């Protein structure tokens, strides 16, 4: 299909124009005279799809919208909470049909290159939203790049870490593990001395990455255009995860709603160690009887034989390419407010979400936040994922594989070979296989 590049160009502090240029064109976004606008005079109706957790995170984003409206009272924001699991396909379906898509979307990092390649997003190059591009974490901003253009701004960044119950770890007399082997020993000791299960391994594709990265593995090699998901390194990583379960160091994971089960057990102090991200901090903090964030330990994921590796994650603000020009100024004003250093600091303070702006880390509420301080080095050393249009399609087959290996006891190499075949047939057919 012929790809169309659509761009946003800043006209003034709150106004911009949408332009269309053919792929590969050197055309510049349209220019116009600057018109300083009174925020109260800006009038529009925007729809925002928020894909954050509706219970733990959504209310805080809605609080920010109310604050936005104190400055922009005539910009109505139709807030819609869309389940994360449904949002990717729901947005693609609506954008392809040219009806029902939101003006602004909170997109997972892997979705942006895909949506941009399909012509569903406006390029932000030249717009006011990228005027302070250097203030963003470079790794987080990279997920918004495709074909030499920038299609979003990073809202939050994250990575997986080892979360642990400080009380249980202290009671068992174990040190915070730095390797998977140490985690196995520590978890078994916790179970022996406290009667509480030591660890929980979530059988989902994203959560198997630290085990595979730890042995030097990856999903694809984009430079060589090769599928490497079924490498011996990844087999070794999965065997480490499986051994934690088989040895009793980790509880046998649930076949249904394993993630929910993991979080319930952790919040109820029935398991000492889990691997998860900062998005669950507010959930843990509010759990009755857990002991608040004071009892929450945070450390880098344990290392394998090659390294300690955790995937970089997060979400970005993107603008649907079908947004009419008359909404442009409001769209920019909204994203600019929601993604300011002050707003990011508020999210960090209330939810433990990690800012993507360097300047946000200089705000006292962030500097003094123990959770953010603990997660910051985790994200700084996180492993970048392949920022290609197909990147968001890697995890469906990977989820199936994780369930097969960690729950159904299927052979790791055979399951990974099936993933590689799926990638070759449906995801990256031009890539070579092992």
Concise structural overview:
The protein is an alpha/beta fold and 434 residues long. It has 16 helices and 18 strands.
Overview of this structure, please?
The protein has 434 residues and is of the alpha/beta class. The two termini are 29 Å apart. Helix content is 39%, strand content 19%. It has 2 domains: 187 residues, D-Maltodextrin-Binding Protein, domain 2 (3-Layer(aba) Sandwich), CATH 3.40.190.10; 198 residues, Periplasmic binding protein-like II (D-Maltodextrin-Binding Protein, domain 2). The longest helix has 16 residues. The strands form 5 sheets. A 5-stranded mixed beta sheet has the order 4-3-5-17-9. A 5-stranded mixed beta sheet has the order 14-11-15-10-16. It contains 16 helices and 18 strands. Helix 7 crosses helix 8 and helix 15 packs antiparallel against helix 16.
Write the layout of secondary structure elements.
Blueprint: E1 4-10, E2 16-22, E3 44-50, H1 58-71, E4 75-81, H2 84-97, E5 104-108, H3 111-117, E6 122-123, H4 138-142, E7 145-146, E8 149-150, E9 153-159, E10 161-165, H5 166-172, H6 180-194, E11 197-200, H7 205-214, E12 220-221, E13 226-227, H8 232-246, E14 250-251, H9 258-267, E15 271-276, H10 281-286, E16 296-300, E17 312-319, H11 328-338, H12 341-351, H13 364-367, H14 370-380, H15 395-406, H16 412-427, E18 432-433
Parallel strand pairs: 1-6, 3-4, 3-5, 11-14, 11-15, 13-18
Antiparallel strand pairs: 1-2, 5-17, 7-8, 9-17, 10-15, 10-16, 12-13
Helix pairs in contact: 5-6, 7-8, 15-16
Family: Belongs to the bacterial solute-binding protein 1 family.
Protein name: Carbohydrate ABC transporter substrate-binding protein (CUT1 family)
GO molecular function: maltose binding
């Amino acid at each position: 299909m012929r790809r169309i590049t659509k761009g946003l160009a800043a006209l003034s502090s709150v106004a911009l124009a949408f332009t269309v240029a053919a792929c590969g064109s050197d055309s510049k976004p349209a220019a116009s005279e600057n018109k300083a606008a009174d925020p109260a005079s800006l009038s529009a109706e925007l729809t925002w799809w928020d894909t954050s957790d509706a219970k733990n995170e959504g209310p805080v984003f809605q609080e920010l919208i109310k604050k936005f409206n104190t400055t922009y009272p005539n910009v109505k924001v139709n807030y819609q909470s869309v389940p994360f699991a449904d949002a990717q396909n729901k947005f693609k379906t609506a954008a392809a049909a040219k009806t029902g898509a939101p003006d602004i979307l909170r997109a997972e990092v892997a979705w942006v290159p895909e949506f941009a390649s399909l012509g569903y997003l406006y390029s932000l190059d030249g717009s006011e939203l990228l005027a302070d591009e250097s203030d963003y974490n470079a790794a987080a901003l990279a997920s918004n790049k495709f074909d030499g253009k920038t299609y979003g701004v990073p809202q939050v960044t994250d990575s997986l870490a080892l979360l642990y119950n400080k009380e249980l770890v202290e009671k068992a007399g174990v040190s915070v593990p730095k390797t998977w082997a140490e985690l196995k020993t520590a978890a078994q000791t916790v179970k022996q001395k406290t009667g509480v299960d030591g660890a929980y391994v979530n059988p989902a594709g994203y959560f198997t990455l630290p085990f595979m990265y730890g042995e030097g593995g990856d999903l694809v090699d984009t430079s060589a255009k090769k599928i490497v998901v079924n490498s011996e390194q990844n087999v070794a990583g999965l065997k480490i995860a499986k051994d934690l379960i088989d040895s009793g160091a980790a509880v046998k994971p649930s076949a249904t709603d394993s993630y929910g089960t993991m979080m319930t057990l952790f919040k109820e102090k029935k398991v000492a160690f889990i691997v998860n991200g900062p998005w669950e901090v507010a959930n843990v903090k509010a759990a009755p009887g857990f002991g608040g964030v004071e009892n929450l330990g945070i450390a880098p994921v344990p290392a394998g034989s090659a390294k300690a590796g955790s995937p970089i994650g997060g979400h970005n603000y993107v603008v649907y390419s079908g947004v009419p020009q008359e909404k442009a100024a409001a769209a920019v004003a909204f994203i600019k407010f929601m993604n300011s250093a002050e707003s990011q600091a508020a999210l960090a303070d209330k939810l433990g979400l990690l800012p993507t702006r360097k300047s946000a880390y200089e705000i006292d509420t962030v500097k003094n936040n123990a959770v953010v301080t603990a997660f910051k080095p985790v994200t700084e050393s996180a492993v970048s994922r392949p920022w290609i249009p197909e990147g968001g399609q890697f995890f469906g087959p990977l989820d199936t594989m994780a369930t097969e290996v960690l729950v159904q006891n299927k052979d790791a190499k055979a399951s990974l070979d099936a993933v590689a075949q799926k990638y070759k047939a449906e995801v990256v057919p031009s890539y070579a296989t092992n």
